[in-house]
Write a structure and sequence with these properties.
alpha+beta; four-stranded antiparallel sheet; 11 strands; elongated
Length: 188
């Protein structure tokens, strides 16, 4: 037998052996069913609340806050030149490790001469006139985020008496799916 035939025969035998081995191995592969329960959750936090301290009017017309009594809102009688203490805050309980953005929507009917400012940790959301996002990364667990700078609404001495004004806040927590603008998806 010449050398080329022997090599061809040897290759054919090796090919047959590898095919037989593959079939033998494949013959003993077995699917094993798995029974159990897998739970997926997309919870961002246990709770998100927006409160402020109860405001009490003093005999001189000023207000003081009782920080031991959280309330959902306060009503003030504005007096020219008398600033109002107001400490709205967002409390997050049980924040999960899922990255998220915190937003606050601010709605107001404040007359000229009544002003406020948000803390430096808030940035106006592109494309919105009254929605801000929190600049810092939210930690897991529990945290509290202040909204107003110096916890004060400033009242000019030039406002007319019996001025009616509103200042309301609404908090949102949305999963980080990109930029703050892309992640903001409020429901109507």
């Amino acid at each position: 037998m010449n050398k080329t035939r022997r090599i061809a025969l040897l290759l054919a035998v090796l090919f047959c052996l590898s095919a037989v081995t593959f079939v033998a191995v494949a013959k003993y592969i077995k699917d094993v069913p798995f029974e159990g329960q897998v739970t997926f959750t997309a919870a961002l936090a246990e709770s998100l609340t927006l409160t402020e301290s109860e405001a009490n009017r003093n005999p001189d017309g000023t207000y003081s806050l009782d920080t031991s009594k959280p309330v959902e809102n306060n009503t003030y009688t504005l007096m020219p030149g008398v600033d109002v203490p107001k400490d709205p805050k967002i409390t997050i309980k049980g924040k999960t490790a899922i990255p998220a953005y915190l937003y606050v929507e601010v709605n107001s009917t404040l007359p000229e001469g009544v002003t406020y400012a948000l803390t430096g940790k808030w940035t106006l959301l592109e494309g919105h006139s009254n929605v801000y996002y929190y600049n810092d990364v939210l930690p897991t667990g529990d945290s509290t985020v202040q909204i107003l700078n110096n916890n004060t609404v400033y009242v000019s001495d030039k406002i007319p008496r019996d001025t009616v004004a509103t200042l309301t806040f609404r908090a949102y927590l949305f999963q980080n799916i990109g930029t703050p603008k892309e992640s903001f998806k409020p429901t109507p």
